[in-house]
Specification:
- By secondary structure, the chain is an alpha/beta fold.
- It folds into 2 domains: 241 residues, Rossmann fold, CATH 3.40.50.300; 91 residues, Hypothetical Protein Yjia, Chain: A,domain 2 (2-Layer Sandwich), CATH 3.30.1220.10.
- The chain is 31% helix and 23% strand.
- It has 12 helices and 12 strands.
- The strands form 2 sheets. Strands 3-2-4-1-5-6-7 form a 7-stranded parallel beta sheet, sandwiched between helices.
- Strand 9 and strand 10 form a beta hairpin.
- It is globular, with a radius of gyration of 20 Å.
- The relative contact order is 0.15.
- It binds guanosine-5'-triphosphate.
- Guanosine-5'-triphosphate (GTP) binds next to helix 1, strand 9 and strand 10.
């Protein structure tokens, strides 16, 4: 067995920021590395794992993509994460780099602490924490109302609690990062991009690179091989939630909605957009059956932006089962969302 520790890259970032897009891009450009991917989602219907398995290839075969769907990774470290990583390391040909895509609501600090686990710390190291941020959402003030005001408040009182639930998750993710990817630059103009950059900078506890990207496409050499050993450097990453005991996911709720077959992709997109606008949905994703089409339609909503594309034929175990996972802030009207998505077109 090699004495070199296997590097692990943690990809964090709020719901819909572009984590799966980035992981997919890295899988497609592995630079000779044998990758394994661990993917964790909020809720027990794994969509990201499905998306990633769609680009499995010899350097990252489908069995190197492991889904952890039994709850949030940062809360199930001992029960789920440690055994899964241990099993990956015990494979006849272990990976030479591991990517972990956390759920958009996961807090990275408790996960980072797990790397100090006796079984793990001699065998793996955190090469780097990548925080992916949605430039449009950041510029819109969805996480922090006004960057200048936040920076002023910080200077005035380090411990001030000015945060919304979205703001806290975003800040903790960025505060743990070794590099921030400011993604979706196509959705913002130049002033909004500056505002997004300033907002991110205001949250950074130390100087780290902030790199712009579209569709998660970043040169792998910029994000892999950072050698950060983040698990030895936890003090530099001060967050709201230092331990998993300190948080639960009560601020957010998820509902899985079974949909009728739709006549067209455009009809689904229009429907999901309307529901998101009316009910303040944060994230919607899943697969929908379109009449007469053998392929399933992958539908992805981030706020009111919705995209859809035909993906693959329906798997035998879930033939034409149209389901969307919908996530909102606590108290969002799940019954109304379900009814609106299920009503005949
Ligand atoms: N316009 C635009 N859309 C993007 C970009 N990057 C990703 N998207 C879209 O944003 C949506 C969410 O992207 P994902 O990569 O799934 O985001 P994620 O962070 O993995 O989402 P969760 O796992 O649900 O938190 C998808 O519809 C992507 O196609 C981009 O640069 N520009």
């Amino acid at each position: 067995m090699s004495l070199e520790k296997i590097p692990v890259t943690i990809v964090t970032g709020f719901l819909g920021a572009g984590k799966t897009s980035l992981v997919r891009h890295l899988m497609e450009n592995p630079q000779g590395r044998r990758l394994a991917v661990l993917v964790n989602e909020f809720g027990d219907v794994g969509i990201d794992g499905e998306i990633l398995k769609g680009c499995a290839d010899p350097t990252c075969p489908a069995d190197a993509i492991v889904e952890l769907t039994n709850g949030c990774l940062c809360c199930t470290v001992a029960d789920e994460f440690v055994p899964t990583i241990t099993a990956l390391l015990a494979r006849p040909t272990p990976p030479d780099h591991i990517l972990i895509e956390t759920s958009g609501l996961a807090l990275p600090k408790p996960l980072l602490k797990a790397f100090d686990w006796p079984d793990l710390r001699t065998r793996i190291t955190v090469d780097g924490v990548i925080a992916v941020a949605d430039a449009e959402a950041v510029a819109d003030g969805r996480f922090a109302p006004d960057p200048a005001a936040v920076a002023d408040q910080r200077r005035a009182d380090e411990s001030i609690d000015h945060d919304t639930p979205l703001g806290e998750v975003f800040e903790d993710q960025v505060a743990c990062a070794d590099i921030v990817i400011l993604n979706k630059t196509d959705l913002v103009d130049a002033p909004a991009l500056v505002k997004a950059r300033d907002t991110v900078q205001a949250e950074l506890p130390r100087r780290i690179p902030v790199v712009e990207a579209r569709e998660g496409r970043v040169d792998p050499r910029v994000v892999l091989g950072l050698g950060a050993a983040a698990e030895t450097d936890l003090e530099a990453r001060k967050t709201h939630h230092e331990d998993h005991e300190a948080h639960d996911h009560d601020d957010f709720e998820t509902v899985v909605v079974t949909l009728p077959e739709h006549a067209s992709a455009d009809a689904v997109v229009a429907r999901v957009e309307a529901v998101a606008r009316q009910h303040g949905v944060l994230r919607a994703k899943g697969y929908v059956a379109i009449t007469g089409k053998p392929m399933r339609l992958l539908v992805q909503g981030v706020g009111t932006r919705v995209r859809a594309q035909f993906d693959r034929p329906w798997p035998a175990e879930t033939p034409r089962l149209s389901r969307l996972v919908v996530i909102g802030e606590k108290g969002f009207d799940q019954a109304a969302v379900t009814a609106a998505l299920q009503s005949p077109a």
